[in-house]
Amino acid sequence: MTTVGILGGGQLARMMVLAGAPLGLRFVVFDPAADACAGQLAPLQVGAFDDTAALAEFAARVDVVTFDFENVPATSARWLAERRPVFPNPAALAVAQDRLSEKTLFQELGIPLPPFADIRSRDELAAKAVEFGMPCILKTRRLGYDGKGQFRIRGEADIDAAWQALGAQVDATGLILEGFVAFDREVSVVAVRGRDGEFRAWPLTGNWHVDGVLSASLAPAPASVAQHEAAIGYARRVAERLDYVGVFALELFCRGDELLANEMAPRVHNSGHWTSDGAETSQFENHLRAVLGLPLGDTRVLGYACMLNWLGRMPDARAVLAEPSGHWHDYGKQPRDGRKVGHANLRDDDAAALADALERVGQALARQAQVEPVVRALRER
Ligand code: AMP
C-alpha cells in the first residue's frame, strides 16, 4: 500500500485523491488550513509549510511527496527531499516559483517570450518601461497568481502608481517588468514526464481569462498544427532541462503565427481540468503515475472538450448534468467572492454539438458571456 503525501490541500489535491483511489493509493494532505477541501477525502495534517517538526511527522506518514501548491518554501521541499522522494524535484520547483528564473530558462532554451527585466528601483522601472514601450506589466517575481501582484503600466503617468503599488515588494518577492503582448489567444500545454524520462502532452488547450483568472478552456485549442507542435516541443525542452517528474503546464500567448511563453506551473493545472472527462487519461491520474514510476496513460482528447470554471459560489448543477457529456466538479468549499469553488466539463465528438450544449448551459445559468468565446471557437471549426 503506497501513501502519497501532497503539500497543499486544495482542489488540485482533492482531484488527485479522487484519481488515485482506483490505483489503490492512500494519501495524506498537508495544509495550513484546517478546512482545506482535500481534507474531506483524505487524512489532513494541519501545519505551516516551514514547520520542520510538522514536516517530519508528515514525512514519516508517506512514501512519496508531491505538491498541489507551488509556493511551498524551496527550503522545505529540499528538507523533505532528504527524507522522501519528492516530485517534481525541489530545484525545478524553485525555478517555477520565480518568474525571473523561469523566463531566463525559457530564453536559454530558445523559447520565444516577451521582453523582461529584473527591476530593483523606480528609476530602473522607468527606464525599462520606456525601452519596452507601454503598455507593459510590472509583476512580483514570486507568490503572484491569477493576475494578483501585477500592475499594468499604460503610460509614463502610471509609473509612480506602479512603484507605489508594488515597490515595497522589491526585497520580499522581487519584481519583474514584462512587455505587454497584444495576444489573439491564450493557450497552454499540459504535459507529463515520468521518472524514466517518458514525455507526453495533452493537446494544446485554449484558455479564456476574466480579470486574470481562468474562466473557460477548450481542447484542442484553436491553433495551427505548427503551433501545437511548437508549444509541445517547448514544454518538452523545459521538462528535460529541469529533469521534471509529474504534470506541469506551460502557458503561452498566440499572436498571429507567433507563440510567446508566459509562465509555467509546476503542478496539475486549471487549464487541464477538462482531462478528467475529456481525455483518455486525466492529468491527475498521469501525475500520480509519473510520481510513482508507473507507465503513463494516453493523453489523447476524446473529440472536443471544454471546461467552465465556477468562481464565488456553485451554480445549479442541473443544466450541466442534463447534457449527455456534462460532468460536475464541486470542490466542497465555502462560497467566497472570486474563489475557485468548482467547474463543469462537457465534451462531444462533434464541435457543433458541443457548441449547442454550451449555449444551452450558458442560457440556463445566465452565463452567456462565459460560454460565448468557446462557442465561437467551436463554430469556427
Ligand atoms: P499570469 O499570472 O502571468 O498568468 O497573468 C495572468 C493573466 O494576465 C494572463 O493570463 C494574461 O491574460 C494577462 N497577462 C499576463 N502577462 C501578460 C503580458 N505580458 N501581456 C499581456 N497579458 C498578460
What does this 3D model show about the protein?
This protein is an alpha+beta fold and 381 residues long. The chain folds into three domains: 3-86, Rossmann fold (3-Layer(aba) Sandwich), CATH 3.40.50; 115-179, Dna Ligase, domain 1 (2-Layer Sandwich); 185-379, D-amino Acid Aminotransferase, Chain A, domain 1 (2-Layer Sandwich), CATH 3.30.470. Helix content is 33%, strand content 26%. It has 13 helices and 17 strands. It has helices spanning 11-20, 52-61, 74-81, 90-97, 99-108, 122-132, 159-166, 225-242, 275-278, 283-292, 318-321, 351-364, 368-379; strands at residues 3-7, 26-31, 44-46, 64-67, 116-119, 136-140, 150-153, 175-179, 185-193, 199-201, 205-210, 213-219, 246-255, 258-265, 304-311, 327-330, 340-348. The strands form three sheets. Strands 9, 10, 11, 12, 13, 14, 15, 16 and 17 form a nine-stranded antiparallel beta sheet that branches. Strands 3-2-1-4 form a four-stranded parallel beta sheet, sandwiched between helices. It has a four-stranded antiparallel beta sheet with strand order 5-8-6-7, sandwiched between helices. A hairpin with a 2-residue loop joins β13 and β14 (258-265). α1 (11-20) crosses α10 (283-292), α3 packs antiparallel against α4 (90-97) and α12 (351-364) packs antiparallel against α13. The mean pLDDT is 97. It binds adenosine monophosphate (AMP). The site of adenosine monophosphate has 13 residues, from β14. Adenosine monophosphate (AMP) binds next to β14.
